[in-house]
Amino acid sequence: MITVSKEHFVLSEDPMSSFFSRFMSKTTEKKPVKLTPAQAQQKMTNEPVTIIDVRRPDEFAEGHIPGAVNLPNETISHSALAALPDEDAVLLVYCRSGHRSAQAVAKLVRLGYKQVYDFGGLLQWPYEITKEDQA
Questions:
Q1: What is the DSSP string of 44-79?
Q2: Is 89 helix (H, G, I), strand (E, B) or coil?
Q3: Residue ranges of the Rhodanese domain (predicted)?
Q4: Where are the domains of the chain?
């Protein structure tokens, strides 16, 4: 039998609360913020943002929001993040209908981005759309 006296066993904090706080901080993610097209347009007009189109390149070429960066949802990972600004940048994410943008926003939040907004899809976008190759 091993005996440990209180003098030799000192904890700076409750071990269970320390464990749970570390566990929760790693696994609990911030809930993504959903914007309406009008709210997204207002952010684009009033502050520096990066607009991310998460559709395939062929879809992007057919028409996209001016100034958008094409970063297909399936490529979002640690290796694809060189295309994105720092973790504190405001990222506005969209796709065609809103399904892929929701997936992409969740990935970006997990990767550490702090200001990620999902404004759905181009189907609901009433503002300007441009084509990649305008002749």
A1: HHHS--EEEE-S-HHHHHH-B-TT-EE--GGG-SGG
A2: coil
A3: 45-131
A4: 39-135
Tally the C-alpha atoms within 13 A of residue 73's C-alpha that lie toward its C-beta: 17
Amino acid letter for position 109: V
pLDDT of residue 30: 66
Report yes or no: 91 and 84 within 8 Å, Cβ to Cβ. Answer: yes
Which residues are catalytic, by number?
95
The domain at 39-135 falls in which architecture?
Answer: 3-Layer(aba) Sandwich (3.40)
Contact indicator for 93, 105 with CB cutoff of 8 Å: yes
At 81, the pLDDT band (50, 70, 90 cuts) reads: confident
